[in-house]
Amino acid sequence: MTLPILSSNHLHSFISAATTTTILLFLLSAVGISTSLAGNNHVITFRSPNLFPEGLAWDSKGQHFLVGSLRHRTISAVSDAGVVETLISDPSLPENVTVLGLSVDSRNNRVLAVLHALKPLPPFNALAAYDLSSGQRLFLSHLSSAGNGESDGSDEAIANDVTVDFKGNAYVTNSAGNFIWKVNDKGEASILSNSRRFTEHPVDREAWYSFCGLNGIAYVSNGYLLVVQSNTGKMFKVDAEDGTARLVLLNDDLIGADAVALRSDGVVLVVSPVAGKLWFLKSNDGWGEAVVFDQIDLDLEGYPTSVVVGEGDRAYVLYGRMKEGVLGNSERESFAIEEVRSPKESEGENVWLYVMVGVGLVFFWGWRFQMRQLVNNMDKKIN
Q1: Which candidate among 12, 141, 239, 275 keeps its CA 20 to 30 Å from the CA of 293?
Q2: For residue range 162-183, what is the model confidence (pLDDT) as tens digits?
């Protein structure tokens, strides 16, 4: 079968139509992707009467969030759609004990939960481990100021946040005593670090959060911990083996710092319900020094107490209304988990988008030039 031969006029029309179509496609793609990058953050609203969660964790195997509770002695799973399911309920714990910091130990399929009794309840500080599949409690380790694993009834302890290493060792901050407990995988507790570095910096005693020292904690795979201190805004790097602590030099104090989360690219996120901010930090020297390269204003009324890194390295902040619950409100049932993004990092994504579009247009105009040359040569032969 004989193929039709295109005239130069047909080619002129084809090139013009292709040019217009290609430019429109490039523009639509650029606008669409840019809009997607700058779109509204994902907000998960979930309902559970009087839950008032303070701690948040991400369970990568279960593909859901875990939250604690101010009064319920429960750990609940929250799906991406906001469906709440009570995963663990432990009525054997003292009544009205608060489930604070949470950390998922994926290798051992368990969740670690920090337990603390708020005043005027009798003192109680402990770390509990629960199997994620059965909900069975694996151990309950009492945390004392003496660090011997026995409850001493001391007021000088507020067990607050927890992180876990690859061997199953847990590290718990004491916000009142300014030290760090270490709890091994069998539930045996000891004091890892009671460094003088933790008490070298001035505290504003007029601030309502002045009582809260060491708070958020994260384990870094190189064998050390990053810990923030609420009442000074400082960050410390702590050796996970011998407890040696060093001050991380920052370009800005993290006032009221609460939880800490670590992204796979090494960026650290710190949230503060006092300042109502989420800080993005990075370090080029293994956390001897670090810079706050971006910060986001958060909803102060929602009282953001925790931040985690979920699927795809996305960051999420918990609005658990904890302060409202502590002040005695018993009528709330709606809470939220919100995705947060760094505007400066998004700007970088947009720059690369436009670079790619520009490169594509360069290749297209090169093709267009070659096609016009072809048409001109055909015109010369025909004429």
Answers
A1: 239
A2: 999 999 999 999 999 999 999 9
